[in-house]
Amino acid sequence: KLSHPMTSLRVSTEGGYSKESGWKSHYDDLLGSLPPEIRSWFQEQMQLSYLARDPDYYAFDAALVITAQTLAWLDDVSAPIPLESDAYARAEDNLMLPYIALLSYVSQGSSILNSGQLLLLDLGPNDPLFDTLFRYHAESLTLMEELKEIVKDMGKDPPPPGTSQRLEALLQSSQKQQNEYFRTDKGNDLLILGTTLNSLVMTAQSLSLGFGPASLLWMSALALMGGYTDKSEAGIIGPHMQTMVESLSEGVMGLIAAANSSNKEILNFSLYATLITTTAIALGIEEYGIGTLPPTHPHDQETARTTTLELVFHMLLSSDIIGRHYSEIAALNGADEQSKKIIGDSLSLGTLVIVMLALSGRENISIDFFDSFNEEMIPLLDTVIGAIDNSKDERATDLSPYLHQAKIALDSNDHHGFLDACESCLHSLKIDPALLNGELANFHHFGNLVTQAFSLRHEDQAHLTAVQSA
């Protein structure tokens, strides 16, 4: 049974994260990686009193702290869980939760649809939407019966030949019906059909994955529930963002010749989460910075905020935080080292380009802001171009001219040309960069909340300075 029933549904690690010594070592490593003159200036500033320090010092310090804490967190969550520990028991329980829900859904799905049949009879054939609802109900019932048979066969040892192919066919059919259903005028009757189709697709996807990826799929789907503007008035993920994420994940799956469409869904969810968080934090830092700055001239504070943002970008790239995140997701899906590298670098590049597009229209960000990122971005672009040149996937190879154009621009330190190439690539995917930027602006409020959550109060700053000086 679950060790702590309420909390164990959400977490598998020990509660609370306060490993200061862990992030302090990363902080020292990051500080040591700075150019000698900047490191000396930083250490000199550290010896001064609070009001005597340059605002840029606090920008440097805040960027170092948040990057060090992120690296320490990644180390913590990717470390193996000790056997025989409570955390290990909770992790195993969590891995089983999707399948408990799955089996419950399979056992109840037919009953739900049979109840829907009674509602259809109440509507009667004279209702203008009766034929539409009747068709979707009948098709859903057929898919449900096929799912029940597949679940039975998968429980056999070994499963009958062709079971995995039947599952993939079921997944494609249910996704097609799901898409058609939500594009069709169906009134306000029998809305349970939409929920049933969503659950049917999620169940088929989970069956096609292993224990770890299935849990990640369910967790991600729950986290983004209500996040899409076409399904919720409170959503922040617009249609252009959805098209872009679909194109990115499909392109990456084509590069590594991956066939399982459920793996693409996990990449989609991971991209949404990372793009929202990274873009929101970038927009929030650009406007508010991180931490508390001393009372100085507004221009000095504005410069310090831009410095913070530039440093955070540098550290994201040099420490490969984003790439590590995507590689961990890929590893869960059984990707080999080469595929992990392609996935990590491709999606890191895509994420950073979207953040650059979001920042390029901001008042305080000039095109020169991006000059110093060439050294870190060129290797990412080289990985993607190399993978495309060796790929036979048409979706990926169609993008090759734009990526080569972007590479030429970066080599020439032409960031206007680089962004132009990125925008041309978006146009080729039928994505309007201006409308996409409008959707990215929805992340601004979210970014404010995130950066305020990470901000340090005056008393926190004084404590942190004492820790750093010790």
Describe it:
This protein is mainly alpha-helical. 74% of the residues lie in helices and 0% in strands. The protein contains 21 helices and no strands. Helix 5 (86-123) crosses helix 9 (211-223), helix 10 crosses helix 11 (261-288) and helix 15 (374-389) packs antiparallel against helix 17. The radius of gyration is 25 Å and the shape is globular.
**Class computed from helices, strands and strand pairing:** mainly alpha
Strand content: under 5%
Largest sheet report = none
| Secondary structure: helix percent | over 70%
User: What gap, in angstroms, lies between the N and C termini?
Assistant: 45 Å
Order of helices and strands: HHHHHHHHHHHHHHHHHHHHH
Question: Judging from the principal axes of the Cα atoms, what is the shape?
Answer: globular
Number of strands: 0
On the 0 to 100 scale, the average pLDDT is 75
Radius of gyration: 25 Å
Name the poorly predicted regions.
1-19, 456-470
Q: What is the overall number of helices? A: 21
